[in-house]
């Protein structure tokens, strides 16, 4: 009998990204299993956001990619961002991109727009799932998104992505700019999200917190994967401790 392994949900093969002639990602191979949390850590400018944007099909106009992105056995080269969302992936970008004058609930409903267009009118069920995960969003559902705190806006951005019922949720630096207590809450929510069955690809500079919630981790340095392994193993790897966990340790 073979040992059961997690089914592969996302795979990149030799994923390369260029901005003009500059190579920002140099042939990255990553795998995310169904229901897994996988993190990509690394310093500023390593190419973490570039990797997520290439997977999501959301590179800026001067960016181009080569290599393969495979989601649930489907190769997505040349597939537009909306179609990738329809295939089951959703990106929460670093800038969150909420509609600040619109109410919280309307921002959430926009997240289910594609499903609505496809004829699924029962978005209420998913709204309940999101409100269970984020009771604060329910309390504030009639408030304008722009009047929410930084942490609440991050929750709203994640909630809106969940309205699309993704199989793969990609989070770009969800802790960026948030106070330590809120960061703790966001990571707690990420752990709870896992229990809903969604797989998470998490890009973070907060390596300590990311390695605590993740199953598997990649270290990206200057556009290349420098290290990879089980998150628990990387958290005790001397190179990772020296480079990414040392300062954070002192700060806490
Ligand atoms: P950070 O944590 O600071 O967001 P990152 O690891 O996400 O960093 P990227 O934002 O992916 O890194 O950037 C990787 C490299 O690509 C950097 O050298 C950056 O300057 C460059 N880069 C990113 N976007 C563009 C762009 N639109 N045009 C040209 N170069 C870009």
Tell me the Rg in angstroms: 18 Å
Examine the secondary-structure arrangement and name the CATH architecture of the largest domain. 3-Layer(aba) Sandwich
CATH superfamily of the largest domain, by name, is P-loop containing nucleotide triphosphate hydrolases
Described by strand count, sense and barrel closure, the largest sheet is: 6 strands, mixed
What pattern of helices and strands is seen along the backbone? EEEHEEHEHHHHHEHEHEEHH
Rounded mean pLDDT score: 90
Strand content: 25-35%
Give the low-confidence spans.
248-252
* Small-molecule components bound: adenosine-5'-triphosphate
- Number of β-strand runs: 10
Tertiary shape? globular
Total number of helices: 11
Estimate the helix proportion, in percent: 25-40%
CATH topology title of the largest domain: Rossmann fold
Q: Quickly name the level 1 CATH class of the largest domain.
A: Alpha Beta
Biggest β-sheet: strands ordered side by side in the sheet: 6-7-8-3-9-10
The total tally of domains equals 2
Helix and strand composition category: alpha/beta
Quaternary organisation: single chain
